[in-house]
Amino acid sequence: MQFVRKILFPFAILYGWITFFRNKLFDWAFFKSYEIPQKSICIGNLSVGGTGKTPLVAYLGDHFNNKMKLAILSRGYGRTSKGFLEVFNDSLSEQVGDEPLFYAQRFDKNTRVFVAEKRAEGIQQIANTYPENNLLLLDDAFQHRAVKAGFSIVLTDFSSPFFNDNLLPTGNLREYASGVKRADCVIVSKCPTSLSPEIKEKYIGKIACSNVFFSSIVYQDILPIGSPKTQIKHVLLVTGIANPQPLINELSKNYTVEIIQFDDHHSFNQKDIEKIHQKFDTFVQETSIILTTEKDYTRLKTHVKEWKIINYPWYYQPIALKIEEENKFIQLIERYVNAI
Q1: What is the CATH number of domain 2-68+134-217+322-338?
Q2: What is 223-317's CATH topology?
Q3: How far is 147 from 116, CA to CA, in rounded Å?
Q4: Over the stretch 13-48, which tens digit does the pLDDT of each residue have?
Q5: pLDDT tens, 185-239?
Q6: 171, 162 in Cβ contact below 8 A?
Q7: How far is CA 194 from the centre of its chain?
Q8: Is pTM beyond 0.90 here?
């Protein structure tokens, strides 16, 4: 795979020039950006793949949910529908996407969730339909230069930071690393639980941003979908996320782990579940479970009875986000949000 990526280097040069020129056209105002009138925070990254945007959107949603009239706008990656839609807690993931459905199920009516592939149109629709909304979170919109948020956060994975990466298709960068200069804040995500000051300084020195924070994933107690087991020794992990390795590492501390891995945003069907159950039937039943991520569970939730998930010991893994210097981070965000 690495060899194939290396021989595609000429295409990476071409891709780089295209994205560079496109960004310059926005910088020079040749292409117009819709400047969002209400307070807005963009959460994005420079690389393809999972950098932890969903936990951060959830974190910010948790913080502002009861303080402001909040809206979350996502493209709704992988959905079968088109155009602008409001997402409700009983929407189907196939129609709205897994992440927007996850947000809708997490928050109460004070936070509204929407999908629109054309962000500017979606933002205007939200403003027309719910003019009382006074804070907008844009999920994965950093490269969507057709809109300009008031505050931008870029995430980069600790294990594969953007400053060590290359442009697509040789690497995973969506644009040149210099694009980080448009960000107001950078969060190094999925960090080990303890980082030395020397490593932090090294990362900060390579990130061209005045506000750099470090975050880690907190794995909470797994929760049963059906009947809980009294003892667990073996886990069959089922994932449809970009990078399950950190979860595998965490689970391996306490369990024997086998994995059935699907592509990111995989749309599960009944045949997938039947194959998973067939695999599980070969295990020692008394001490084994099937575990999936909280985001994957969002896609499976409406099919628990239909696909006989309830008949097997399925669990899901909730996670939370821990940000070092959390008070400083919150102060930075609230300083923007509360500014007149």
Answers
A1: 3.40.50
A2: Rossmann fold (3.40.50)
A3: 13
A4: 899 999 999 999 999 999 999 999 999 999 999 998
A5: 999 999 998 899 999 999 999 998 999 999 999 999 999 998 789 999 999 999 9
A6: no
A7: 23
A8: yes
Q: Kindly list the domain boundaries of the chain, sorted by start residue.
A: 2-68+134-217+322-338, 223-317
Q: What are phi and psi of 40, to 5 degrees?
A: -150, 140
CB distance 260 to 241 below 8 Å: no
The reply to whether domains 2-68+134-217+322-338 and 223-317 share a CATH topology is yes
Cβ proximity of 146 and 34 under 8 Å: yes
Q: Are 171 and 106 in contact (CB under 8 A)?
A: no
Q: Which of 51, 49, 42 is nearest to 188 (CA)?
A: 51
In single-letter form, the type of residue at position 150 comes to: G
